[in-house]
Amino acid sequence: MSIHGLYVAPGEGKRLVSAAHEVVFKVTGEHSTAASSFEVLVPPGFDVGAHLHHHSEELFYLVAGELEFLAFEPVSWEGHWSQWRSEEGRTVITAGPGSVVFVPPGCPHAFRNASDAPAKMFFQASPPPDHEHYFEGLIEIFRTGAAVDPAAVAALRRKYDIEQISELRYQPPGE
C-alpha cells in the first residue's frame, strides 16, 4: 500500500449547515493525527464567547471579512470580552483577510463578527477529533431555529475540552 496525500477541492468536504452557519470539514481525524481543519462561515452577529481549552490549540486564518479576536489572559474578567485588556496592555484586535491568530492550550480567546457581512475563516484545531464532534453538536443546536440555548451550548462545551468563560451569542443584525 502506498502513502499519499489528501486533496480537497473547493466546495468539497463534509458540510454542516444551519440557517446562517456553515462549517466544512476539510481534514479530519480520519486523515490526520495532528489536526482537524475546517472552513467556517461566521455570520454577522455571531459571538463565540470567551473560552479556553486545556489540551487543544487552534489556528485561525481569515479568508474574507472581518472578525474581532481576543487571545490573551485579561487583567479583569468583568464586562464583555471585547473590552478586556491584558497586563501587558494587549487589547482585542480586528482581523482582516490574510490575518492569522494562533491560540495555545490554556489561553483565553474569543471571536465575533461585529460587521454586517459574513466572514470566512480557515480554522485548524489540534488534536483531532474533539472540534469535529463539537461542530456537529453546535450546528444541531443552531438547526432548532429557536434562540441559542445557553445550557445546551455549555453542556456541549464541557464535553469537548472547552471551558466557557462567557456565553456564545448569536444576534443577527436587525433582530
What is the CATH H-level superfamily?
A: Jelly Rolls
Strand content: 25-35%
Task: Let me know the largest β-sheet.
Answer: 6 strands, antiparallel
Give unreliable regions as ranges: none
Q: Give the helix proportion (percent range).
A: 10-25%
CATH class: Mainly Beta
Our measurement of the CA-to-CA distance between the termini, rounded to an integer number of angstroms, reads: 55 Å
Put simply, the count of helices is 2
Number of strands: 13
Distinctive features:
about 180 residues; alpha+beta; Jelly Rolls; three-stranded antiparallel beta sheet
Summarize the structure in words.
A hairpin with an 8-residue loop joins strand 2 and strand 3. Helix content is 14%, strand content 33%. The protein contains 2 helices and 13 strands, in the order E-E-E-E-E-E-E-E-E-E-E-H-H-E-E. With 175 residues, the protein is of the alpha+beta class. It is globular. It has a single domain, classed as Jelly Rolls.
